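Project outcomes to date are best conveyed with an example. Our students and postdoctoral researchers have been running inverse folding experiments weekly, and each run begins with a structure described purely in tokens. The record below, which covers 324 residues, was selected by the lab manager from last quarter's runs and is presented without edits.
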């Protein structure tokens, strides 16, 4: 019997026991007084109902996370569970989206990996997990293994697929193999946490992948304040007010324009932090910023004007600097 069937039966039986009229519960346990029998059966109903409902809810959330792009489990600032999808920044791209085909193929690879002994879980990360794919995309699959099987796959060459970038069955795939025990204790650097915050759980029989993402793919308040200060000072006080004027004084207009680009990068990162978002990998920062819940007024238009360099002149440097 499948696990979900057992969980559903447990829930239904518990609900049925609780729903029994008191007049029926006494005779069911004729050796016990009627009052005690009612209490005992009600307690039995709760024992069956509560775990069954919890298990079914967890299973439903797991199915949702596997079948809908971009859904991940995170902790909010009060450390409560939430399923966050629509509020996350998403790609703004005009070309056709081949996500469905890529996601189906990722599920097929995950199903094949799930048959292998020692596989704890499989995550889909990268651009496809963020809901977009085209012919430039690849499938990024993170496979978590028990320690003995991790050693077998990575040191003894027993993995079913080669680690790293491969071309398999007509698909570009990047397999990453991890020892689950080591990974749960490791400190994830910022970009990895950002990438994993979008991860789609493809295989997670024990719920360990979701627990790991909830615990590790987060932005703490302390980190947010520290990085915000860094980027605000870097783009405002340092580059715009000191470095760019210094290059104007020294006569290197190209260096001044280059430093303005650096200042703009820091500004974009600060805007992500203002939205309680982890900072994306460099190639995604600007594009994903378009869909942030809050941005400075006329954000995209002003960024476009800031990136535009009409001529290499002092006046153009000052125009761009004023926009930033």
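After processing, the design step wrote out the following sequence:
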């Amino acid at each position: 019997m499948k696990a979900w069937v057992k969980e559903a039966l447990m829930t239904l039986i518990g609900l049925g026991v609780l729903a029994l009229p008191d007049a029926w519960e006494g005779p069911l346990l004729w050796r016990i007084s009627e009052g005690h029998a009612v209490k005992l059966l009600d307690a039995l109903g709760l024992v069956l109902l509560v775990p069954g409902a919890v298990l079914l809810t967890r299973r439903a959330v797991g199915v949702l996370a596997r079948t809908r792009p971009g859904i991940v489990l995170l902790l909010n600032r009060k450390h409560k569970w939430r399923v966050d999808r629509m509020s996350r920044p998403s790609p703004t791209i005009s070309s056709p989206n081949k996500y469905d085909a890529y996601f189906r193929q990722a599920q097929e690879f995950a199903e094949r990996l799930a048959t292998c002994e020692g596989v704890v879980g499989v995550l889909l990360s990268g651009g496809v997990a963020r809901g977009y794919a085209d012919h430039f995309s690849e499938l990024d699959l993170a496979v978590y293994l028990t320690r003995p099987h991790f050693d077998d796959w990575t040191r003894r060459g027993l993995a079913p697929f080669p680690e790293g970038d491969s071309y398999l069955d007509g698909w570009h795939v990047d397999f990453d193999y991890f020892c689950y025990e080591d990974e749960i204790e490791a400190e994830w650097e910022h970009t990895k946490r950002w990438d994993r915050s979008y991860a789609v759980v493809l295989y997670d029989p024990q719920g360990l992948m979701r627990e790991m993402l909830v615990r590790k793919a987060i932005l703490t308040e302390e980190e947010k304040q520290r990085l915000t200060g860094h980027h605000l000072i870097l783009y405002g006080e340092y580059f715009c007010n000191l470095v760019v004027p210094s290059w104007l004084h020294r006569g290197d207009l190209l260096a001044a324009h280059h430093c303005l680009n650096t200042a703009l990068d820091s500004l974009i990162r600060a805007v992500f932090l203002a939205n309680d978002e982890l900072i994306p990998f460099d190639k995604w920062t600007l594009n994903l910023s378009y869909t942030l819940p809050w941005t400075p007024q006329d954000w995209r238009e002003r960024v476009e004007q800031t990136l535009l360099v009409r001529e290499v002149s002092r006046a153009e440097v000052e125009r761009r600097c004023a926009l930033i």
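The first strand starts at residue 72 and ends at 75. The first helix runs from residue 3 to 19. The training component of this project remains on track.
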